[in-house]
Amino acid sequence: MSKMKLKIGEFSQMMQVTVKTLRHYEQRGLLLPDEVDEWTGYRYYSIDQMQKLQSIRDLQRLGSTPHQLYRWSMESGGPGEMAISHSNTYRINTICLPHSDGADI
Hints:
By secondary structure, the chain is mostly helical. The chain contains 5 helices and 3 strands, in the order E-H-H-E-E-H-H-H. The chain is globular, with a radius of gyration of 15 Å.
């Protein structure tokens, strides 16, 4: 069974972000397209990536900088891997949130 693929414009509309934002996240290494067509250069995203994008946006709203998001993404397997637990909340606070003392959110 193949995954449903969405062109970058379709994915951006569904997630209410701009294509420019998705390209920025790609450049930063935060959210890479699931596939890039080698002939056309079209970027395709999967439905599975919606949660990862939402996690990135949520962490940004909490005040994380792009550098902090990237660092956390590299250390934890990415925002899409986020699970709600005490230990992960502590990790998010200490790694991603500016001026955090590690207290629970």
